[in-house]
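Example record

The entry below shows one chain as it appears in the dataset: sequence first, then structure tokens.
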Amino acid sequence: MTRAHERGTEEVQGRQVAAVDLGSNSFHMVIARVRGEEVRPIDRVREPVQLARGLGKRRVLTKATRQRALRALERFNQRLREVEPGRVRAVGTSTLRSARNSSEFLAEAEEALGHPIEVIKGREEARLIYLGVAHSLPDDPGPRLVVDIGGGSTECILGEHFVAREVHTLNVGCVRLTKKCFGDGLLTEEAFEAARLRAQREFSSIERAFRESGWQQAVGASGTIRAADSILRQNGWGAQGITASGLKKLRRAMIRAGDIGSFKLKGLRPDRARVFPGGVAILQALFDRLGLDTLTATSGALREGVLYDLLGRIRHEDVRERTIRGFQLRYRIDAAQASRVERTALALLSHAPASWGLDPTADGRVLSWAARLHEQGLAVTWSKHHRHGAYLLRHADMPGFSRDDQRLLATIVGGHRRKIDLEYVEALSDEDYERAAYLILVLRLSVLLHRSRSPVDLPPLRLTGDAVRVRLRVPKRWLAAHPLSRLDLEEEATHLRALGFDFGITP
């Protein structure tokens, strides 16, 4: 155990940590206390918001849905007041990824919750689901298949121990499929068959790879799977978990009921019944395409994965650091040069004007990542490599990073040289725009100062000024001995003017 890990462990012992999952069907909150290596839940809250049902044809969340969601988050807020800031992580999933007015809603949602909300990509959602499921199971050897049927998407993951090896997000969920195939509320054979075929089409893209993977255990997470397991057990259709024969009996019972309003079975909550038909169709398609015999339900899910991931960050075991190191290796980045730029950038940031309002820890971490990856685009070509690097970061799968994290990081890397592409900077939120502008300035200066790629240390440097007028203090002797660097810094004023800075150098 490293000293950093020991400090992190001491800091979190006995304290409360919390995870909030803004899912497409339900919003969940779990609050836990840390004891040793164990996270013990002490409170759970579930709100059946059904966000995906409120997503219209134009992919806009309706006013009624937004209000229902905000009221739920306000109730979460009351319980979270006892949890320290920085020990709460909230994530949004499929519906918030696809809603066109997601940004507008998120601003209201963060105010209601009292904490930042990250919209995570599908593959990151799958990774966190696997992490939550893995911590709820014995750490048996051998690969396992984990499936999570959400309201807007279905995640399928192959992993071993606590590591997800292969993750896939399929564009089919219980809310969306129920809305599409059972929108009139009728539970007919034809509607079930249409829903099953739609789901099968999604699973066909992963069928071969998953059948040949050799997994030894199939585990299901989420409310849909736990509800199906409970219904089959309580009605005598499956004592050993979810099976294909049990699902057929469940489907026949639903068809006999005739419509969603009349469908009542032991183990099924009324609010779940409204979205359950689509979930059953997805389960049948899963068994058909992947050749399952039995699917075992587990209590672990996305929110538990978020908790364990948050705990890792507190203990300095941040998966994002692993991701950055992996990118450096994959794209064969010059680590020595990246390290030089990183040291200078962090030194400049430490003396940045207080009026910038930057957080030395959080913003320093982002700047460090950008410095370590700023030459990633060289793996494509030298010409416009800053733009190639930004593209890779914007679209790559980056475990641990939210969608907004990636956008910010890509924007900083894309702005580290030549003309600054304001289109991407201005597409950021107001808060991230200001952060990006300052961090781009610092990274650009650091890259220019290390243009020679020399291992020789730079002289003491310092940034002075205010939010607009910025001066870089450089020793006169060094400037005289480095005429190319002086010219670069003088010309830099033109580029930084695009971000609204009045930049200059001074001895």
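Notes for this example: The first strand starts at residue 16 and ends at 22. The domain at 137-298 is CATH 3.30.420.150 (Nucleotidyltransferase; domain 5).
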